[in-house]
Input
Amino acid sequence: MTIFYILSSTFLITLGSLIGIFTISVNKKILQRSLLLLVSLSAGTMLGGAFLHLIPEAYEKLEPLKASLLVLTSFSLFFLIEKLLHWHHCHDEPCEKHHFGYLNLIGDGIHNFIDGLIIASSFLVSVELGIVTTIAIALHEIPQEISDFGVLLYAGFKQKKAVLLNFLVAAVVILGGIVGYSIGQQVNDITPYFLPIAAGGFIYIAASDLLPEMKKEVSLKKNLLHFIIFIIGIVIMFTLKEFVHI
Output
């Protein structure tokens, strides 16, 4: 029954990726006005998730120097990946932002894989802990999935492609659950190394790609609104850290 609980929980988390579609696809005009707001929210949740969740957890489970080196290594690798993607997709034509949509997918995929490992390890302890952990991760994922979908659209993806890619990346949580169940008790020895890797990717995407997009807005009023949304993203992550153990 344990594997059934793990697969059911991770599948429900995957379905959460569809929330963003139903939330911001109702009206195209509202969608267009909301894209930069969602980019701002995503930047806040990414930085908040990295600095308030992933890095502190990595420091608890790994030597601080080792964890910091992994964060820097991940940051550097994402920089390299961005350069390669930018060259591949923009070598023959102008391209400004499409590539960071792919980076967002990579970072989100790593994060979803970690979520799957955490869900599996929790159910291996007890069904009750697994259910509580699944609820906590769902609360964490809802704002992230909404903003991730918006980032893909803002990056230039067609709506159908954004829906498909966001769903497929969300489904990586199922893979994480299967891997976590398969390796059993050894999951705790492997999971910590994914934490700083995901953190480095989130920091790079937010600082290098999302925040610069927010800076392109010239209206002071809209800039203040985007900053408020950015802070809300951080506050969401802080609230989850304080009141929900993930």
Notes: DSSP finds ten helices and no strands in the chain. Confidence is low (pLDDT under 50) at residues 88-95. The chain has one domain: 2-243. The radius of gyration is 18 Å.
